[in-house]
Description:
The chain is 41% helix and 21% strand. The protein has 16 helices and 12 strands. The protein has 4 domains: 10-15 and 87-183, Reverse transcriptase/Diguanylate cyclase domain (Alpha-Beta Plaits, 2-Layer Sandwich), CATH 3.30.70.270; 28-82, MutS, DNA mismatch repair protein, domain I (3-Layer(aba) Sandwich), CATH 3.40.1170.60; 187-243, DNA polymerase, domain 1 (Orthogonal Bundle), CATH 1.10.150; 259-408, Dna Ligase, domain 1 (2-Layer Sandwich), CATH 3.30.1490. The chain is α+β, with helices and mostly antiparallel strands. It has helices at residues 18-26, 54-57, 67-73, 84-98, 129-144, 156-166, 185-189, 202-209, 216-220, 224-231, 233-243, 273-293, 326-343, 363-370, 380-396, 403-408; strands at 10-15, 37-40, 49-52, 78-80, 105-109, 112-116, 148-153, 177-179, 259-270, 296-307, 312-323, 348-360. The radius of gyration is 23 Å and the shape is globular. Residues 14-15, 18, 111 line the site of magnesium ion.
Amino acid sequence: xxxxxxxxxxxxxxxxxxxxxxxxxxxxxxxxxxxxxxxxxxxxxxxxxxxxxxxxxxxxxxxxxxxxxxxxxxxxxxxxxxxxxxxxxxxxxxxxxxxxxxxxxxxxxxxxxxxxxxxxxxxxxxxxxxxxxxxxxxxxxxxxxxxxxxxxxxxxxxxxxxxxxxxxxxxxxxxxxxxxxxxxxxxxxxxxxxxxxxxxxxxxxxxxxxxxxxxxxxxxxxxxxxxxxxxxxxxxxxxxxxxxxxxxxxxxxxxxxxxxxxxxxxxxxxxxxxxxxxxxxxxxxxxxxxxxxxxxxxxxxxxxxxxxxxxxxxxxxxxxxxxxxxxxxxxxxxxxxxxxxxxxxxxxxxxxxxxxxxxxxxxxxxxxxxxxxxxxxxxxxxxxxxxxxxxxxxxxxxxxxxxxxxxxx
Length: 409
Ligand SMILES: [Mg+2]
């Protein structure tokens, strides 16, 4: 590792088989003893697999697979629901241990944390980054009983890919920590498919395939000008940089936003209250997901309505206790919409939901907010479940879980 002070030292710490591991800890006698373990779905085996043990994966079971199919493939498996609260608690515990090593921690999902240790060389007496990562891994194991894989590099992109390779697998040689040295990024990238690069989704992959681009090796054969001529300035440059392991994004422990809003202009004006309520539900759902993703809670909910004659009206309510669950946001938004419709009942062109007076719940604050005494509009359970559902949807697609189902739990 170079001692150059300008070289960034970034780690990505990712819990191994997080949902399975937490389910085992939460139920040591049942799930904890079942080698063939599938986590997810409902007791009736509806829904999809959130995670499966390595042993169950050997039967072809994988995340996002319909549970009914998973149970057919692996008939002896023990199936348990995701222990949402235990997962949220473990996630906070991991974050707390990691923050002892550096304050610059960005939680990317319930079990993924980026850390920036740039400038800590002196603090750690010149300890190599891999050695710091191993101490971190040991501390998390000792205090949470969960195992982490940690990738290290000069960028978030390369650290993330390194963590994937560091993951211990049955029969594999990886020991949980892999650090890519400064200067070795481009060579390291050559082993990956483009689909392995974050943000290269199925649609982008199809577009790239039309130019014969499937792997990083395919990309580095072409110069920037060629990639730009195929993909446009923005995406061509982006791919050219990623293929060489270049990613300037910084680890951001604090994200700021003044308000978050979602609105929809209708193809044809809507006058039906039930149809407007259905659109409002979807807007409240998306706006609250944005707020949660940013690690925030909102005190003010605003509904905006643009009438067919372009008159724009809005109504707001500021709450004593901040909210972030879709259930609570929708409940308030529904009252506001009813008020606006009662005042003037004409067909609507546009409907919007905005959340403002945002307060951070990241880091230490999250603990106190989540454990704060009762908010009449929103329980800790509402929040935890909303956030977990966001992650499952992000990983497995928007249909993996319904909000309706979540509300009934
Ligand atoms: Mg993980």
